[in-house]
Every structure is written in structure tokens, then in C-alpha cells.
Amino acid sequence: MKSNIKEKIGDIFELPQDALRDIPKVTMYGNELVLIENHHGIRIYDEKELTVRTAVGFLKVTGEKLFISRFDESHIIVEGVITSFNVEVEDG
Amino acid sequence: MDFLRFFNGTVKIKITGSQPERFINLCLVNKISLSGLSRVGEQTIMVHLAAQDIKKIRPILRKSACRMRIIDKSGLPFLKYKALRRKGFMMGGLLFCLFLYIFSTFIWSIEINTPKPLKLVSAQQIVKQANIYGLKPGVSKLLLNNNQLREKLMKDFPDASWIGVDVSGTRAIITIYERYKVLEKESAEPANLVADKDAVIEDVLVIKGTAVVSKGTTVKRGDLLISSHVYPTVISGQEPYAGEPMLARAKGIVRARTWYDSRAKILLKEEQYYHTGNINYGLVLKIPDGSSKVLRISDFTTYEETNIRSWRNKSFALELKLQKYLEIKKKTTLRTPSEAKEQAMAVADKKILKLLPADAKLVNKNYIWYNIKNGISVRAIWEVRENIGINR
What we know:
Chain A is an alpha+beta fold. Chain A contains 2 helices and 6 strands. The longest helix of chain A has 12 residues, at 2-13. In chain B, the strands form 7 sheets. In chain B, strands 13-11-17-23-22 form a 5-stranded antiparallel sheet, covered by helices on one side. In chain B, strands 2-3-1-4 form a 4-stranded antiparallel sheet. Chain B has a 4-stranded antiparallel sheet with strand order 12-14-10-24, with no helix packed on it. By secondary structure, chain B is an alpha+beta fold. Helices cover 23% and strands 43% of the residues of chain B. Chain A binds chain B through residues 41-47, 66-73, and chain B through 20-21, 24-25, 27-29, 31, 33-39, 45. Strand 5 of chain A pairs antiparallel with strand 2 of chain B.
């Protein structure tokens, strides 16, 4: 309900959705860099896989030589050779 | 951003544990920013973090059951420790700065600047004299008094019309301007010799021309003394020359008695105001209706006020004016009659001495005294002998 009101207000004032709601925003620069905003931490991280927890579920980045160049409250920047990007929506 | 990171310092650490991800997430919860995360092994990751956060991660390590090892430290805070370890190097740097500063307060070279070529004075001599007065390579700038030196040099070299001593960096520059000697070219045109002032002739020495006056003649200013007419010498027994005279520039010395007089007045009791040299500043608030309110006034009892900013002629609605007060004090001088007399005489004599030409010789002095209210007045009359002839 709460998010519905936020959504409506956002529609009326044409505000970007990610600024109002806690949903992730993903920006990709080719296959070498992924920027994830509004995350809730990470679940798995190794050289071949990075799984990020978000409000909508898990975002899974796979590739070679993955390297997190930045990690703070709002941003995660992953660099490396990215081969796939999956969204795993959690039920419930 | 990179600069800020360098300024705060960063630490590279190795985290070892069964669940390094847990450590990363706890960092997020505790608002610790990480950068340069990389997986190096099964249970090991490398992380960079700000030096100030290193203390905060200890409880996190305990919670996530990880161990930490510091691999590398970089940035300004660690550079400090590094510098402390290399004491000799730092001391060298500091000493260099110190010496550079100390040596820049000395004068190392003296330059001569002559905008126009010198003929009467030699620059080397001026520099030599300046050396004697203390301006030489290796002397401290702080001990050098430019104005005093300049005045001393100008006194020693009257042929230099202006000498400037400037210090620029470690150089002292002596600028010399020379006095021009204006040579009066003696005219060869025929002219009479006339009296320069009223006088009584004492003796006449003719070099060229014909004397018109003789001893005892009273002349007025502008009267003819030696005429420009020249006649051939008459040999005894021959007839006097009757033809037209030749014209020449009359030359000769005509010594005559002249008089100079001056007056002076000295009061027995005199009140004078003088500046004590003390300065005070006051603040005045000007209000549009023309009145003004003094916020801070001088603590002098008697003073003269001057406006510091007189250039401003536009008046604003409300303005704050800084005022300068110069302290004035009254000085009362009391003199005995004999003191007053002496001083009056000295003043009168001084006035005459200013008027006298260099070749004048004193013959007689006279003083006439008048008693005036509260003081003494004197009229000094000097009788002198001088050469009064000038060509005209």
C-alpha cells in the first residue's frame, strides 16, 4: 500500500522510480563494468560470480576475474569480463 | 577524490575466514566504504579501506569470524611515519629551507645604475664610500638603513644631484644622477658696467673701459660705473684723441660701501603650539540629518583632527568615518629682557647674512632698539664693502 502511494506520487510528478522506491538500478558499461545502485549487500562473491541482494531479489553477475572496485552504502561497481547478468526474483 | 583518499590514507588488508561475504555485508551495515575488493583464494579476499576505518572493523572481524592482516599502507598519514623514520633526509630539507631564507636576508651584490653617463663623480668612489658606511656584500638587509645611507652619500658627493639606494632581493642598487653644471658663457658683446645696488664708491679698478665714477661718488642702482667706450692711450705731448670711441665689454672691480638692514621682534612671553607626534584614531558615525555621533574619541586634551579619507566627496546615507587625531601641546617660553635682546639680534643678523653676497666684507654693525608691548624689537644695519659692478 505504502509503495503504491509512492508510485502514484512519482507518476504525478514524473519523478524517477529509483529515487522514490528502494529498487535497484543497474548500469552496464559494455561487458567490462556493472554499476548497481540501491543494493542490500552481497551473498556470494568470488572470481567468477557476484550475487547482490536487492529489494526485488538477487542480481547475479557472472564472468571472469571479477573485481569489486567500489563498495559502499549505495554503490557496487564490479569490473572484469562479464559474461551474463541474471535477475532472480524472490517469491514472497 | 583520489586526492582526498591520499590525504586520509588507505590501508590494504587481507581478510581470511570461512565467509568473507559476511564481513563485507557487515561493513555495509556499519557504513564503512570499501574499494578494490578482489578474491585471491578460497577463503581470502583483499580489501582497501580508509585509514580511519581500520579501528571500526575489529568488532566486525569478531562477528564474521575472520582474521585480518595489514598488507600495505599508503597516503599522507603513513608518509608522516615514513618521514620520521628518515630523519636525516627531512632535516636536510628543513635546513635547506632555513638556509635559503637566512641567506636571502643578506645583500650579496651591489649594482650601480647610472641612467646618464657620469662626468663629475665616479661610481666606484660612491660604492667605496657606501662600503665604508656598511653597504657591502654579506651585510644583513635588516641592518641597512637605506634613507640614512642615501643622505650620507649625498652629503659626501655634492656633485651627485641624487643618489638612490634600493634593495631588490639580494641585490642593492645604487642609482646615481649627476648635477648639471650650467656654464655661463661670457658674452663678448659691448656692455657697460653698472651699479647693482645703491652705494658709495670706495675704489675703482678698471680692466677694460673708461671709469665714470671715482672714490666718494654716491651711486644708485643702475647708475653707470665703467663705460664701454674705449679710447686709445694718450701719449704726453700729443693731442687728445678726438675720433669715435671703440666699443668694448667693460670690465673692472668697483668696491663700494653698501647697507643692509633687517628687523626682528622677540616677545618676553610666548605661547606656541606644537605637535607631540602622538597619534590617536577615532570613529565617527555620520547620520543623514547632518549630525554625527562620535563613537570613539581621542583621549588627548588638545588635538587637531584630520580626515583619513578625504578623497570621498559623495555622501552616503549612513557612513562610518575613521578620524585621525594629532596631539597638540602648548609650550610657553619666558625670556628675560637680555635673553630677548640676544635672540632678536641673532634673528636680525641671520636675515642679513642671507642677503649678503659671498665677497662682502663687514665694515660696521649697528642696532637700533625699540621697546614694544611684551617684547623687544630691533633693527640691524650692517655696513659692508662689496663689488657692485655688473654688466648690462
